[in-house]
Amino acid sequence: MAALPIPYRTTKDQPTFFNLDDANGCTCPAPHGRTFPTALDPLYCNRYEIRDFAKKVHALDIKYIGVCCGAAPMHIREVAEAIGRKVPASRYREKMSNHFMYGTNERIPEHISGYGDKA
To answer: Sorted alphabetically, which Gene3D superfamilies does this protein's record hold (predicted)?
Structure first.
């Protein structure tokens, strides 16, 4: 058994990425009147959704796991890490402790990290 989803937020009403609409107030819709194939960007699943999916299907003993059309390197990395692998791209995982506004690293000046509650 395999699990190779597309990384888009499909719904029961719109089960494929061929018919997804962008009904969240897109101010610059695609000129051809649909999101597929060139305006799917705001409908992506994020890295945490892909990781959650990979963990769930791996727990079901599905061993062939990946991401299909529209996958980005971060999606593939999340799948690998969700099943316990460390891959070369793991070194690019975000380190929120170093984030300039939300980080806790002592090197971040307080006047900068203070923006985290105001931004």
So the answer is: Homocysteine-binding-like domain (3.20.20.330)
